[in-house]
From TrEMBL:
Organism: Butyricimonas hominis
Protein name listed in UniProt: Glycosyltransferase
Residues annotated as domain Glycosyltransferase 2-like: 13-176
Keyword Transferase in record: yes
Keyword Chloroplast: no
UniProt KW keywords: Glycosyltransferase, Transferase
Pfam families, per the entry: Glycos_transf_2
InterPro entries xrefs: Glyco_trans_2-like, Glycosyltransf_2, Nucleotide-diphossugar_trans
Family: Belongs to the glycosyltransferase 2 family.
Amino acid sequence: MQELQVNKESCFSVLMAVYTKEQPLFFREALQSVFEQSLTPNEVVLVKDGPLTEELDQVIADFSNERKQLRVIALEENRGLGEALRVGLDACSFDLVARMDSDDICKPNRFEKQVTFLKEHQEVTIVGSWIEEFSDCKEKIEAIRKLPQEDKKLKVFMKWRNPFNHMTVMFRKKDILAVGGYQPFYLLEDYYLWNRLANANYCFANIGDSLLWARGGYTMLERRGGWKYVVSESRLLKYMYSSGRINIAEFGINLIMKSVIRLIGKRLRHTVYTFFLRKKVKCDK
């Protein structure tokens, strides 16, 4: 494994952002999973999106003392995920960059698999993976979000749904910057970026395996409902239509379906996600 890490082609950064409402325990588990990898990152760029709680700052202090790879960038005020990631990406030292959320858990071989994939597929700009979702503990998986793997299928799929699990992606920084990088786009900064990459004919891929445990449940669904989502998604659909990614019929169907899902109650939304937008998993534990 050491050979991979000294090979310049295998050097990579991890890009994360954290804000004040994150749970310290979840944040600690996320960072721990980033460092406890079969292929460890050469640096972890962590953006503090505004002032944090004392407990979150303590987690950062603990890891800073133990892990020299951790680089912390502090924003004076909360600017939102899109702006935090834009600042963080600019600070990343390596062309390969892996995204990670501050409350999920990487599987131990995630980075090794993605670095190997991108080395073997030089035509691919961005590679993601499937995720296993849980509410209480990662040993009790509730659902799996599986996505297409090949570029052509992903470009069709993205007309209707996000083609990547954002917290799983690894990409080539130079290609991301070539289309303008991360930009503020309320709640959908990743989906907006993928569309710009597709419009510039960059190649997509997903690994057909789950490389991350993602926190789901009602808390996640609460964040994915309401008028703010409807407004943001309508803006994105207008962009997709104006750029030729979808036609007028696809625009209308998308707008109706997405608006209904965002405005129904969280329990009904949970049912829709579980039975129609995820593969449900039976757990005996």
